[in-house]
Every structure is written in structure tokens, then in C-alpha cells.
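User: Quick sanity check before I run a bigger batch. Here is a single chain. Can you write out its predicted 3D structure?
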Amino acid sequence: MIKKIITFLSSVPLILTGGVFLVLSFIFNKMSFKIPFDVAWITIFICGLPLLYSAVRKIIYNKGISKISSALLISFAMIAAIIIGDLFAAGEVAFIMALGEILEDLTTSRAKRGLRSLINVTPTQGRIIKDNKETIVNAESICKEDILRILPGEVIPVDGVIINGETSVDQSIMTGESIPADKIVGDFVFCGTVNCFGSIDIRATKVGKDSSLQKLIHLVEEAENKKAPIARITDKCASWLVPVALLIAIIAGIVTQDVVRAVTVLVVFCPCALVLATPTAIMAAIGQATKQGIIIKSGAALEQMSNADTIVFDKTGTLTYGTLEVCDIFPSSPAISDETILSYAASAESKSEHPIGKAIVNYAKKRGANVYDISSFKMYVGKGVAAKIGEKNVFCGNSKFLVDSKIKITDEINNKLTEFHSHGKATVMVAYDDICIGIIVLSDTLRPEAAEIVSTLKAMNTNVVLLTGDNELTANHFSKKVGIVNYTANLLPENKVDCINKMQSNNHKVCMIGDGVNDAPALKTADVSIAMGTIGSDIAIESADIALINDDISKIPYLKKLSKATSKTIKLGIFLSMTINIIAVVLSVIGLLNPTTGALVHNGGSFAVLLIAALLYDKKIK
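Assistant: Done. Predicted structure follows.
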């Protein structure tokens, strides 16, 4: 019941109402306007009770020095001001503290929607094969060693091994790779991944909490729970501020024999400007970042970004665009044109649903290449496609597919294949009329600004690391192109988490940048995380502390500079507020200030803090 009342009193409308009554109290007292009671009591009730409740709770439940909080000092000042009858001063310190709490709450992210979104991805049903009969059951009832049939387009409900059929599986939820992985009998498949093409039968090997997707969910949940809350700066200062304020107030009261001076010391010593320094600067920084297309979800994210000495990139969709595009065409003979190879390949792939086939067709359309009518189209899962243009056969696929189709491949073509693969590129061999006519080369496209960003971050004394689910060759190729020396390939979500934990154990502050579901645990584990806002998955965006609305990774150095500027602004605000407080304490001790005038001077510190924060909002950061 008490907690509900405190929560109600701490609401924004109530606190603003308290501010209105505080202003009215000041006006009525100055105009000697007669009313039944001083309306500052309303402010004290609304803003003071939650403050007192917080101070008492911390004394009872906190351990050691953390029992002493900023709320305790302000409670002392409020009660002392009430005792001597200066209700305006009592209401003022309570209101400023409550206002600071509102601003701090506005800069704090409380959402845990990312975990809920990830849970929603979990498959709910599966198709069990028993006695040659198909039965759809709830995923929870699937047992180890059960045989399941997965049709094209269906989500695989458990981890398993293929015992019948061939297909390609979209494993991006686990590995982040943009190209579906070809799967044949004996290959493993993960829970939560999508069967793209052929119907397959699998034998369940890991079910329920042991499945890969459930482990992914557990990783996100565990990372969320492990993150310790960042201690508020006012509470860090309170451990020495409270004893010093009480000591000076007591000494001033004893020496001057004037209790009003002692109370004035408590009023002006209240860390209200200190309370405002952090949230106002953070709100200004968040406002400036929003103008640049960056959503910062919490003040803690800015603080951690300022401290980050290691930036970890995912590859697909982060350093690259995450989409395959044709980047080269290699004819087997000078007599064969690029357009001829492209036309035959696009014609054969025109009925394909594979991402590589679609990329070739789209490229052909952009180039204005001819796309011919085909007949007898057939797809060979994990190999390629075959079709007929008129009476001529067209084959598009890997080298094994062409060899199996009795098509000869020259040493020159094989050497070129090896070269392209060493650069992390995908290849499609094209044969027409039973002759290999060339190779179409595809690659994930590197963002043009990636290399410059890596160079800029290094110049800012920041370590840059690449963690990717892609294979070693691809990871090595892209790392070299952007200038990253430290990279690790073939990583599943839990491996990325292990890498980040290892960096943190070596006293590095880590910022992780990613876009996929598979990045969610790593994003949660890192000290601060950034998600791509346009192409990124909802789960990655909700797991991250910061989102780049336009996927503009060139903003990352700006973010680092903004976070450092925010940190400097907070420190400047704290320095100014403490300086004003110290001057006010001296004036209080010698009797030049009373609780009411002290409260007004005290507001001067708060105004200075707000002004400094406002300057940050329009500060030019290159």
C-alpha cells in the first residue's frame, strides 16, 4: 500500500503540481497574501514523502556506506527547514530532487522487449513421423531421437541431423551468414532456422532447453541479469557529502548559536544541482544524437561508450550491406562475352528461389541482359539448377555439379575458382550446350565508408575487432579490406559471447555493433551495444543500447566523441554546482543567507547546470 502511494506521488503530473504550489507559496509570501495554510506543504507532501521513503529504505536495506544517500542529506535539510518554519526552503530542495529523479528516469531504458521478441521466434509445433504417419505436435512434446519431417518454408523445431533429403537452410538466426547453407544427409540443423527448399526428415538430437535456440535465449537472459546497474553519481558523493554537511552545520550552529545558520548550511549543501548535472547533460546529448539519426536508449549507454576502448564489429549487415551482388564475370574464352554468360545464367535461374539465383536475375535486369524462356527447369539442392533454352542445356552451379553433369572444367577455370574463394566470394559456374562458358562471381558488398571508420577509430586509440559467423576465408578477406587485424571466424552466438567475456576479463570496455538475431547475446553481454536500425532484426535493435536509424556506421566515431563531450559536460556541471554550494555554505555560516535566500542561490547552481547542458545540445561535434 505504502509503495503504491509513493509510486503515485512520484508520477510526473504530481511532481509538476508540486512545483506549481511551490511557486505559489513564494508569490503568496512575498505579497503577504493571507491563506489558511502555506501551500508549500503540498509540495513537501508530494515531493518530500518519496524522498523520505527512499532515504529510510536505503538505511534499512543497503549495506555499509551505501546506506548514506543523497536522499538522506536532502531529507535532513527538508526536516530542519520545516522545524524552523521555512516551508519554502523545505519544498524547494524536495522539488528539485524529485525533478532530477524524473529526468534520470527519462534517460534510463527499462525495456526488456528484446528477450520477449526472441522467445516469440521459438517454434511452437513440429511434424513427427511415426509408423509412416505424420502427426503435428507441440514442440514441447518432441523427444530426443524422434523423427520429424520439415517442409519447405517451415522453421526447424529442434536441433537434429538429416536422415533423408537435401535442402538449403537459412541459418542467419544462429550464424548471421546471408547465404543459406546447403544441407545433405548426415548434416546437422539448428532449432529456429528455416528450411528453404527441399523436404527433409531429421532425427532430433537436442530438444527443449538443450536446443540451440533455447540456449540463445538463455544467453540473452543471463547477459541481462549479469549487467550491474551503474551507481548514480549523487549516491557515490553522498558517502562523504552527508557527514561533511552535518559536521559543518553542527559546528556553525554551535559557534554562532544560531540554528537558522545551521539549517541554511544543510539547505545550500543539498546536491540538487548535482542530481541535475547527469540527466540534463544526457538528455541534451540524446537530443543531439537524434538529430544525427541515432537513438540512444539510456544515459548508462553514453557513459559506457565514453569508456569503451574496444569496438567489436559483426560483418554481415554491419561492415557489409548483407546482400549478395554480382561483382565479376569471368569468361572461359575471349570469344564469350560477359553479356552472353549473364543472359544464359539469368534465364536458367529465373525460376529459382535461391538468393544467389535471385541476385543473378536482378543483376541481369539492371544490365538490360536478355532473359530467355526456358523449359524443363530442375533444381538440385546444394548443387545448382538445370534448364533448357530451346534445345540447348544450361547448367548453373558448383564445380561438382558440372563435373557430375559430364562437363569438362579446365585448369584455368579451377585456378580462378580457387582465387575467388580465397577472397571470400561465392561463385556460380555456367555451362551452355555442355561447355563451361564462364564463372559468375558474387560477394557481400562492403560499405564504402568501412575502411575509413576503422582507421578513424584506431586513430582515437580504440581497438577494432571483427567477430563473424562467416568462414575463415571470407573473414580474412574482409578484415584485410577494412584494415582490421584482430578477427575470429566461424562463430556461433555463444562463441561471440565468450570472445567478449574474454576481452572484458582483460579489463577492456567493449562496444559491440551488430544487426542479427545471432548478435543479441553478444549485444547484451557487451558494456555498450549498437544495432543497425534499418536492416537489423527487431531483437538486435531491442537488445542494443543504441540504434543507428539509417545504418550509417560512419556515425560511430561521432558517437564516441559525443559520449566524451557528455562526460566532460557532466563533470563541468558538477564542478560548478559544488563551487556554488561551497560559496553558499560560507555565506550561510557568516549569516548573509537564510534558508529561503539560500534556496534561491541553490537554484542558481541548478540553472547553471541546465545552461551548460543546453550548450551541449547545439555543440558542433565533427
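The chain is about 55% helix and 20% strand.

User: Great, the batch can go ahead then.
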